[in-house]
Write a structure and sequence with these properties.
By secondary structure, the protein is mainly β.
């Protein structure tokens, strides 16, 4: 199994940037895919971005061109670089890793407000 810890969340003005990190420990060599989800108050959790072991990435339409997902195997850490942030990006962001099942982090709050 794997343990995931997110960091890097915070408050930022519209148009600003943040980089979220997801540090993985445990059976990291078995990670096949990594993903970032978010959940805004009163809304369902939604998939933001995914990256597979071959480096293929996919994004929710609302973040294409603004967010970039990556995973550094040497550091066992995943990242979500978020640029041009909008108020509607405000949510708790969760990272998830797929081994034999999906494992989740505890989440980090991102607030975009003027």
């Amino acid at each position: 199994q794997v343990h995931l810890v997110e960091s890097g969340g915070g408050s930022v003005q519209p148009g600003g940037s943040l980089r979220l990190s997801c540090a993985a420990s445990g059976s990291t060599f078995n990670i096949r895919d990594m993903a970032w989800y978010r959940q805004a108050p009163g809304k369902q959790r939604e998939l933001v971005a995914t990256i597979s072991s071959d480096g293929t990435s996919n994004y929710h339409n609302s973040v294409k061109g603004r967010f970039t997902i990556s995973f550094t195997h040497a550091k066992n850490t995943g990242y979500l670089r978020m640029n041009s942030l909008k108020p509607e990006d405000t949510a708790v962001y969760y990272c998830a890793a797929n081994l034999d099942m999906w494992y989740w982090g505890q989440g980090t709050q991102v607030t975009v407000s003027s």
